[in-house]
Design brief:
Two copies of one chain form a homodimer.
Chain A lengths: L18 H8 L16 H15 L6 H8 L13 H12 L13 H18 L2 H5 L9 H14 L6 H22 L4 H17 L5 H8 L10 H18 L3
Helix pairs in contact in A: 2-3, 2-4, 5-7, 5-8, 5-11, 8-11
The structure holds a DNA duplex (30 and 30 nucleotides).
DNA sequence: GCTGTTGTGTTTACGGTATATACAGTTGGT
DNA sequence: ACCAACTGTATATACCGTAAACACAACAGC
C-alpha cells in the first residue's frame, strides 16, 4: 500500500484535523468560554439530532444543513460546536454507545457474559443500521463510551484466564460475528429483498453448472430460516473453540 | 419516506433502479447493439479504472469525472455504460473478485480449505481497503464472481457433513472474522496510528478507574503484536468450535 | 449510393454536498 | 463603558451525481 492515504469511508482523510482537539471533543474535555453569548446548542445535542435523522432516513440524510435545520439554525452554526462532518459522525457513534451493557448478571460466567455483550451489541446495530457504514473505515478516535464497551468485553473474557492478547483476539472474533449478522439484516425491505432473491435465483439457475456447491446448498435450504438464532449459533461455535483453548484440549 | 428506505451507504437508495438491468450488467448479459458508433469503453474497463483509482487514493477519489478523465472523456460518457455510480461500485467489487481462490490443494480437508479461502479473502481486503466500505451496506446484487466465492466457501465446508443452513452460518462466521481483521489493518499509516495510540493511551490513563479491565489488558500487552497471526488464531477457534459440532461433542 | 434509426460522446444546467471567509450581534471581564 | 471573545449568519467556492438537449457516427434497409 506504499504511501499512506488510501482511506475508504466518505469522511475525513487528507484533512489532518487536530487529533487532540477531536479527542477533547469526544471526551467532553474542552473548557468552555466565559465570554460571549450563551451557546444555543452543544455537540451532544447536535449529535443526538443527527442520530435521530440517521435512524429515520439513513446516514445519507445526515447533512450539515439538515441537522442544522432541526434546530432552526444555519448550517454554518454547527461548525461552532463540531470541527466538521467526520467528527460529527464520531460523536454520533459515541452517542449511540451511551448505554453500556450491564454484564453483572453474568458475573464470573464468561460464556454468559460474552453472550450478553454480543447480544447488546447486535441490538445496537439493529437499532442504528447506519452505524455499520459509519464504522466501516478504521476510526482513529475512541470516545469514553466506546472504550467502556471495549472494557466490558475484556472484563467478560477475563475469567477465561487467557492472556490479554488472546482475549483481544476473541473480542475481534465476536465483533466480527456481530457485524456480519448486523449487515445481513440491515435495511431489510421484505418486498425488495424478495424481488432480488427471485432474480438472483433465476440467474443462478441459468448458470447452475458454474456454482455446483452453492446450487446444492440452496436446494438444501441453506438460506431458509431454520428457527435457530444465528447469533446463538455463531457464539456457540466461537465459545466452544475458546473453551477448547482454555481447557488446553489438543 | 414512511416505510422502507433507511439505507446507510453513500450510494443508491431512493432511486429504484431496474434490478433486472443491474443484474444483466453484472452478468454481462446485455445484448450489444449493431447500429451506431463503436463504443470506446466498456463497463469492465470503466470498473477497472475506478478500482485503480480507489486502490491508489481511496473510494472518495472515485467520482464519475475522475474516472472519466482516466479515459479522456466527459463524465456523462460513463452513463452510456453504467446506470449510475452505485452500479459502478458494484462492478468494482465484482471486478476485484475476479480471481476466485483455488481450493483444490485442500481437497477434502475442510479445515485447510476454509483456511485457504479466508486467507485469500483477507488478502483481497488488504489489497483493496475500499472494498470494506463499499460492501458495508447490504448489497442486493450479486455478480458471478461474488457467487463463485460463495460457492467456493460452501464447497470447502461440504465435507463437514453439516446441514446447508449451518454451513452457511459458519460461512458468516468466517467472513465476519476476515472483515473484522481487515478493518483493523485498513489504511494503516504507522506514524498517524502511533500518534492516535499515544493520545488515546494518555486520555485512558487519566480515566483508568473507569476502565479497569481495559487498563489491565493494556498493561498485559493486549495490543502488542504477539507473533501469532490473528487470522490463524481466529480460524483455529472457529474451526475447533465447528469440529466440536461435527463430532457431536457436548 | 442514400436515408433514417440508433447509439455515441459533449455541453450545459440543476440541486445537492462540505466548508472557508467575512461579517454583525451579544455577552462578560475589566 | 469598553473591548475581547464568542455567537450565529450570509456569501462564496469547489466539488458531487445526474437530467436534458444536442451534434456526430455508423449500420440497416432501400
Amino acid at each position: 500500500m506504499a504511501g499512506r492515504n488510501a482511506r475508504s469511508g466518505k469522511e475525513q482523510q487528507d484533512k489532518p484535523r487536530d487529533p487532540q482537539a477531536v479527542l477533547a471533543l469526544l471526551w467532553g474535555e474542552q473548557e468552555q468560554p466565559t465570554r460571549g453569548p450563551k451557546p444555543t446548542l452543544s455537540p451532544q445535542r447536535i449529535a443526538a439530532a443527527a442520530v435521530e435523522l440517521a435512524d429515520a432516513q439513513g446516514l445519507d440524510a445526515v447533512s450539515m444543513s439538515k441537522v442544522a435545520a432541526e434546530f432552526g439554525v444555519s448550517a454554518m452554526a454547527l461548525y461552532r460546536y463540531v470541527p466538521g462532518k467526520a467528527e460529527l459522525v464520531e460523536l454520533m457513534i459515541e452517542s449511540v454507545l451511551a448505554e453500556v451493557p450491564d454484564l453483572s448478571a453474568a458475573e464470573g460466567d464468561w460464556r454468559a457474559a460474552t453472550r450478553l455483550w454480543a447480544r447488546r451489541c447486535l441490538d445496537l446495530y439493529r437499532a442504528h443500521p447506519w452505524a455499520l457504514a459509519a464504522t466501516a473505515m478504521r476510526r482513529q478516535a475512541m470516545g469514553p463510551h466506546q472504550l467502556r464497551w471495549l472494557d466490558a468485553a475484556h472484563a467478560a473474557l477475563e475469567p477465561t484466564g487467557l492472556p490479554a492478547a488472546q482475549r483481544h483476539q476473541v473480542f475481534v472474533l465476536v465483533v466480527g460475528l456481530v457485524r456480519s449478522l448486523a449487515q445481513q439484516t440491515a435495511d431489510f425491505d421484505a418486498d425488495q429483498d424478495r424481488e432480488w432473491n427471485r432474480l438472483t435465483a433465476e440467474v443462478l439457475r441459468r448458470h447452475a453448472d458454474r456454482f455446483p456447491a452453492l446450487t446444492r446448498a440452496i436446494a438444501e435450504g441453506a438460506f431458509e430460516p431454520d428457527g435457530t438464532d444465528p447469533l446463538d449459533f455463531g457464539l456457540d461455535r466461537i465459545l466452544d473453540g475458546v473453551e477448547a483453548l482454555v481447557a488446553g484440549r489438543p
